[in-house]
Amino acid sequence: MSTPEPALVMISTLLNQGLDGFAPRLLARFLQMWDTAENFEPLVALVRSAPTHGTAASMLQRLIHEQLGARLAERLPPEDAALRVGLFSSQLIGIAVSRYLVRTEPIASADPRTLVRWLGPVLQNYLTGPVPPP
After folding, report:
1. Within 10 Å of residue 129's Cβ, how many Cβ atoms?
2. What's the confidence (pLDDT) of residue 3?
3. Residue ranges of domains in the chain, CATH in brackets
4. Dihedral of the CA atoms 125, 126, 132, 134 (nearest 10)?
5. pTM for the full model?
6. Nearest to 69 by CA among 26, 115, 37
7. pLDDT (tens digit, 9 = 90+) per residue, 28-56?
8. Residue 33: closest CA among 131, 93, 112
């Protein structure tokens, strides 16, 4: 399983625009691609299977790490890059599961711009926000 080529190009393009504001930009594209894509069925099947199938979980982990995590980690402080990327990607997976698989309302029918307004700053904080106090 590999990421569709347009997704790889999109991630690179967004990262080339800088880390500042990356999360809202990525979330907007993520929602647009999932809302309109028909070629994401293999990815949907992988996300759906991951909780109960070890092989699918490993594939999903590898996909996230290789295509998004490693690229993001290069631009983050090394001391907490892995945790920041993990928190960021866990939220993206949660959004995908809630909106597209479980279809939890009101997330499933929310306007993508609304989700970006609410979730974009949270995702961005994982990447560039201050480390929370102990």
Report:
1. 12
2. 47
3. 5-128 (1.10.357.10)
4. 170
5. 0.81
6. 26
7. 998 988 888 666 666 667 677 777 777 76
8. 112
